[in-house]
Design brief:
The protein is α/β, with parallel strands linked by helices. It contains 11 helices and 16 strands. Helix content is 37%, strand content 23%.
């Protein structure tokens, strides 16, 4: 990491009338342009707006957002920021699949709808819905470790189920002995036993799903986390928010599919390609589960040079509390910053208020 001290004489005139945004007599350059931050110690503030060298001008308070995080203030540019909402899908949230209607995921969704999404809209921050969306080709090449993590179930094949049923109802000892001999013959002809259990996780059909809050409607749940299925879709309230976002004249919402826990893994993904094309440098993270897909995506983003802010109250997990705490502890100390939806809302309101002041 490159760190050096630079003068702060170059500044925006608005800073003179904004003591809460004033910086110390010197700032520290962290990193090397164009991927760099500026740090001021009093109060501890990280400028993530990538101001241009050599003057590194202080960002205009009417064009940037100051977030109060758990460790320091972070100044971000709405034009360079995206809100990443990860895996807020029926499969993880719907009570029709036995998910807790008062669980952490639903509470995170409520915070998104009431606070974070409206604040992002007001600031002009792009919203990206990053969700599981698999094809058969993805299933065929999925690593076993990921397959195991998603609803692994060892179930007998139809052949074995039928055979078990026949044995259960067979009272003829002679027939049982004949079947045993057949099994021995099969074993001798196939020295390596053929697995007769099948996986019932990713890509497996859910079958009919009853929607209790929709006049007890029954729908096809689709194959687990496959593209264009009900279970991989956004729940109704979030889907409505997404549809509203797609109508925006600038920075409309976009849905991007992912095929791993992280949506930014590997050399490139549809998400990383889009972020690079749009010139996004700062990512606000929300979704489920905090310690799994959200943390995986955040860590990959950090390693690839994006600035990362975890909105903790807009994330949820079914894991034990210590798992969430570990993610937040590491994020605020090494991967980026930890904030909340109310902090984003306050920062946006302050920016918008300054814009009004300039226009009066």
């Amino acid at each position: 990491m490159l760190a050096s001290t630079i003068d702060t004489n170059p500044h925006h005139p608005e800073a003179d009338s904004a003591p809460s945004r004033s910086l110390s007599p010197s700032r520290t350059l962290i990193g090397k342009p164009p991927n760099h931050w500026l740090y001021s110690p009093d109060p501890p503030t990280f400028d993530l707006t990538r101001p241009s060298p050599p003057s590194f001008p202080i960002p205009s308070p009417s064009e940037s957002i100051t977030l109060q995080t758990t460790t320091a203030r972070a100044i971000i540019s709405p034009a360079l920021t995206a809100l990443l909402i990860i895996d807020m899908q029926n499969f993880f949230l719907s009570p029709a699949l036995g998910r807790d209607p008062n669980g952490a995921g639903i509470k995170a969704a409520d915070k998104l709808l009431s606070t974070a999404i409206p604040a992002a809209r007001k600031a002009g921050i792009r919203i990206i819905w990053l969700n599981w969306g698999l094809t058969q080709g993805d299933i065929d090449t999925m690593p076993p470790s990921i397959i195991r993590a998603f609803g692994f179930e060892a179930a007998p094949t139809n052949h074995d189920s039928q055979k078990a049923h026949e044995n259960e109802n067979n009272t003829n000892k002679e027939e049982e002995e004949e079947e045993e001999e057949e099994d021995e013959d099969e074993k001798s002809s196939n020295p390596t036993p053929i697995p007769r259990n099948i996986h019932k996780g990713l890509g497996h059909p859910l079958g009919p799903i009853h929607l209790p809050n929709n006049n007890h409607q029954t729908i096809d749940g689709g194959r687990i986390l496959m593209l264009s299925t009900w279970n991989a879709s956004l729940p109704p309230s979030l889907h409505a928010a997404y549809l509203t976002g797609t109508t925006l004249p600038t920075t409309p919402d976009i849905q991007i599919p992912k095929t791993r826990q992280s949506g930014l893994s590997g050399a490139q993904t549809p998400c990383t390609n889009f972020l690079n094309q749009q010139g996004i440098t700062t990512l606000l993270f929300a979704g489920v589960n905090t310690d799994q897909c959200v943390a995986g995506s955040l860590l990959d983003a950090c390693h690839k040079g994006w600035d990362c802010v975890l909105l903790s109250d807009c994330c949820g997990t079914t894991s034990p509390g210590f798992a969430k705490e570990a993610v937040e502890w590491n994020c605020e100390r090494g991967w980026g910053f930890v904030g909340c939806s109310e902090g984003l809302e306050r920062g946006v309101e302050d920016m918008v208020g300054r814009r009004r002041g300039l226009s009066d």
